[in-house]
Design goal:
- This protein is an alpha+beta fold.
- 18% of the residues lie in helices and 30% in strands.
- It has an eight-stranded mixed barrel. It has a two-stranded antiparallel sheet with strand order 3-4.
């Protein structure tokens, strides 16, 4: 037997449509709320640190002195004119001149074939870290005064002569670092000599990618 239903009247269709719409709205609103809670509860991503670009040797050395050493009182801004450095194992025998601070920066452009004491670091007759820099290659393409510095080994002796007095140092550490590393320039409690030069020339960037650091401790 077949049941026959009559057509639904228009008012009933309107009522059914209203009920269906209300149900759909409620379900959709619940889904949206759940989605918002999920997103809001996601862990926050840590900020990406900004890394400074490496700089050339002159720029790496040319930093504000106060960023390397605390302010100090100097007896003189000059070093004795007869100062020399002698490293037998590297065949280095050179005058040492002053690399002056200019506007808070060290000017090493005039070193040429000389080694340069970085003004503001300790001197050999003072306690602390005496820093001497030198070119590995001159602008002419000839070897610089520190071209053979990589031959220095732990245990070698370095002599700095100033005003007729010999100051002896024994090499305790040799290492390479990046141009932006200012640690070798910082003041120390012990009497130390630090030598710095360039290493690993990159023809593409026309810059040295590393610095050679020689650390020596006073023995006399």
């Amino acid at each position: 037997m077949r049941l026959r239903f009559g057509r639904l009247s228009f008012p009933i269709l309107v009522i059914l449509a209203a009920i269906f719409g209300a149900v759909y709205y409620a379900v959709d609103n619940m889904a949206s709320t759940a989605s918002s809670v999920t997103v809001n509860n996601l862990p926050t991503q840590a900020p990406v640190p900004i890394v400074a670009n490496p700089t050339a040797f002159d720029q790496a050395i040319s930093v504000q002195a106060t960023a390397v050493n605390p302010p100090r009182t100097f007896i003189s801004d000059e070093i004795p004119l007869d100062t020399k450095i002698f490293i037998p194992t590297a065949s280095i025998w050179s005058d040492v001149i002053q690399a002056y601070l200019s506007g808070g920066n060290w000017d090493i452009t005039n070193l040429r074939s000389n080694a340069g004491h970085l003004q503001g670091t300790s001197w050999v007759d003072e306690p602390g870290n005496t820093v001497i820099s030198g070119h590995v290659e001159l602008s002419s393409g000839l070897p610089g005064i520190f071209a053979t510095l990589e031959n220095v080994q732990i245990g070698d002796t370095i002599t700095v002569t100033s005003e007729g007095v010999d100051y002896f140092y024994t090499v305790t550490e040799t290492y390479y670092t990046v141009p932006t590393d200012l640690t070798p320039l910082r003041q120390t409690v012990d009497d130390r000599l630090t030598l710095i030069t360039c290493n690993s020339y990159d023809i593409v960037t026309n810059a040295y990618r590393e610095r050679l650091i020689i650390v020596a401790e006073r023995v006399t």
